[in-house]
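Example 3.2
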Amino acid sequence: MNEALPSRLCATILPLLMLAAVPASAQDRRVVQEPGLPDRVCTSLAPDGQDWPREMRRLQSAIDHCAPGGAVRLTGAGRFVSGPLRMKSGVTLWLDRGAVLTAVPDPRAYDRGQGLCGTIAAKGNGCLPFLSFTGTRGGGIVGEGMIDGAGGAKLAGLDESWWQRARRAQREGGKQNNPRLIEATDARDLVFYRVTLHDAPNFHLVLDGVRGATIWGIRIDTPADARNTDGVDPGASQDVTIAHSFIRTGDDDIAIKAGHGPTRYVSILDDHFYSGHGVSIGSETNAGVSDILVRDVTLDGTTSGLRIKSDASRGGLVTRVRYEGVCLRDNQRPIDFDTRYDAGAIGMAIPVYRDITLHDVSGAGGTLVLRGHDPAHPMQVTLDGVHFDRSARWQIDNALLSAGPGGVSPVPPGLTVPPAPAAPGDCAARWMPFPDGDSPAPATRD
């Protein structure tokens, strides 16, 4: 763990008055409340043991014939095994507790017509998602049932699972072609409430060009060694709230991206994260990320904790990001803000991180990384009530740091701060075990 020379650190003290001014826009602009269950059910279906093509047709027909504002309800304790399904505007998929909608582990079901799904090839994106919201408005997925991506199941006619294919692609080179579990594209006003997402072959929930999404009380549960199984990925989207949820995955628990459009006005509130790579922004930040609020979350065993990652091949402006009331433990890099995510990246898309505030952030040991791109593009971060164990070590390069009245410990090299008050002591009461699979998600604090 090499600390950067103090001469590379620009440090100032930010007045208390300025710290009190939190941008009101740094969060979802909607008035967001806990969703409810649908008032109207178009169709109730129980599992009947049909083969997956017939089950897929039965489910798709129920969705297609449901009027906007209604729900297709899956009842009974059992599995509905299906191929990919297309959701309709205003229609909600409602899964009762015990109902499991399972993605058939057959690459042929998801192929886009190029014969790529399930292969390792020079290009990816060869698979349809299991559930898609394309150009829809309203609707979503609710209930205490489960959507199972069967990522660890053997693929039809093969002796490998989706996850084994992904690992082999990593070892041998090439792109994996695995289906995402849920993908929303150019959609509006979606709700994902209390449902469990399990064992996705690839990313679990992707928002691409979405305007307005409430993700509340969900569980995402996939092994830590399942490659590229991000939890929730908002990209080119705005006005998104992810609240009161429990996430453990094999990649980013949340990844806010802006590869082909800006992502802004995102609230991440009262969530709990376990295995995975933490709450991330990036790596694609080309179009800009702004107005992000991460508040009252725990990161228990994630590799990185609070993370911003990009590089010169895909960088852009990341600004007005506020973290507050965050508890971290057993993290390798509790703070990991790095503009050189790929050290070998070449390009002129310089990542710029500024107006980043950490307030009331507590953790144990690990490496605390703040690495700006170069002296002309320093990272600008305010630390106010940021406290880690003495064993924590800063790695700082090209950073303009400011300290608030809550102090910071250990003190970064080169930063002069007044004596810090005692670190907040409320994290012990906030750790929660991942909820049992047979129980609804426990209530979390307001």
